[in-house]
Automatic annotation (TrEMBL):
GO terms for molecular function: NADP binding; shikimate 3-dehydrogenase (NADP+) activity. This is Shikimate dehydrogenase (NADP( )). The gene is aroE. GO terms for cellular component: cytosol. It holds the Pfam family Shikimate_dh_N. Signal peptide: none annotated. Pathway: Metabolic intermediate biosynthesis; chorismate biosynthesis; chorismate from D-erythrose 4-phosphate and phosphoenolpyruvate: step 4/7. Residues 6-88 form the Shikimate dehydrogenase substrate binding N-terminal domain.
Amino acid sequence: MLAAAVLGSPIAHSLSPVLHQAAYHALGLTEWDYVRIECTAADLPGIVAGTAPETRGFSVTMPCKDAALRFADVVSTRAHLVESANTLVRHGDGWYADCTDIDGALAALEHVGHTGGDVLLLGAGATARPYLAALQQCGAGHVSIASRSEGRAQPTLHLAAQLGIDYTWVPLTDPVVLQDTCTSADTLISTLPGDAAAGYGHFLRRTPRLVDVVYAPWPTSLAQIVANDGGKVVGGRTMLLHQAVAQIEMFTSMTVTDEVFAAMVAALNAA
């Protein structure tokens, strides 16, 4: 049966089916199917509302996270806070929205060895906001938020202020400022899509640790440059893996044990 699916556009590259199917199999839910569905933000209400009653939920990726938040009947506190939902779960006759991206961001920061120092955050869109929530939980010194437009970054800057984070906005278009900011930062987080950070590698190469949200294609130019210079790099697969855990537990009402998690890791490594 179609138990769940991932919604987004483009969606063919998504590795979510790999993780979910591995987990369902390890949990004994061998009849459960999880598929990719090409879906724009405008398509989401009709697709979700038209699903069969047995469908438990949806993973949601770009460009549908805002649409999922607006569609849901009930929204978690953290999804409301970051104004982004990557998870829809059937909730009685309606739908519940959550943001497990925050779980994924926390795991990525832990894996890269972030211990609370200063951060340079590239990008100020919907993907950046879960990282701010994660930084507020795990600790950070000063957070520099870099984007092309300070005006368009206002929702993210407002969230940083709301979370009590010490932050400044810096222009992504100024290589001198970027290089100086990166030199003083302990952790660099890139939430830029695809290989959009490629042109900044020369200015950011000496960061001691990088979290890059991209997982396909991998490695990105920035990740390769930082790794070549001896920096520690964590890619988007770590975030993807850990955000999926809470989704699976919500969809199945079962616990992702160490054995189930190991099956997910093995499937992801083989993909």
